[in-house]
Write a structure and sequence with these properties.
This protein is mainly alpha-helical. The chain contains 8 helices and no strands. The protein has a domain of about 120 residues. The longest helix is centred in the middle third of the chain and has 40 residues. The N terminus is likely disordered.
Length: about 190
């Protein structure tokens, strides 16, 4: 098999089906975007299946997040690293199909009932859920650097700035990228 076409490893049919079904389930839990389900993706592909190591998983997410394009690209990179081209198809189809169908159905329903009390309560209730999912994602992605005081300070400052100001999230991201480019924090 050609590695450029099929990727680093080939998964068999049952493994690809398990990958597809797991990412399909996560798709329905991805309130706030696919990145909010990264902790469970990490648990599945690293902890449960052992298809990737901690560093490989974190590098996959970091590479995709640094690249221009949609936020969901990290799912394709994880799929590639887990099972090559077949892994990309399994993870991306699993991630995109259910949430797209659900989003279409909810958008149609929401357009008809946008001002109802139930619709407003539902959308208001999603904010804390999204925040919790994003915080758990941050916890998993910081695993390799946890325990370093500089990392803790940078994270705390970022949270404070985002909580207390109207500053664009791009500024703390830029500062984090600069700190990383200069060798990180210790």
């Amino acid at each position: 098999m050609n590695m450029l076409l099929w990727g680093p490893q080939a998964l068999c049919g049952p493994e690809l089906l398990a990958l597809f079904l797991h990412f399909m389930l996560l798709s329905l839990l991805a309130i706030g975007g696919a990145i909010t389900t990264a902790p469970d993706m990490q648990r599945f592909v690293v902890g449960e299946r052992g298809w990737l190591g901690e560093g490989e998983f974190t590098a996959s997410v970091a590479l995709a997040q640094a690249a221009p394009g949609p936020n969901v690209l990290f799912v394709a990179v994880i799929g590639w690293n887990v099972g090559g081209l077949a892994g990309v198809v399994a993870t991306m189809t699993g991630s995109m199909l259910p949430s797209s169908v659900l989003a279409y159905a909810v958008a149609r329903l929401g357009a008809r009932h946008a001002q109802s009390r139930a619709a407003r309560a539902f959308t208001t209730g999603l904010a804390p859920l999204t925040l919790g999912l994003l915080l758990s994602t941050s916890w998993v992605l910081l695993e390799p650097m946890r325990g370093e005081i500089g990392t803790a300070v940078l994270v705390a400052l970022t949270l404070l700035v985002m909580w207390r100001t109207q500053l664009s999230p791009l500024w703390p991201i830029a500062v984090g990228a600069l700190v990383g480019a200069l060798g990180g924090v210790g």
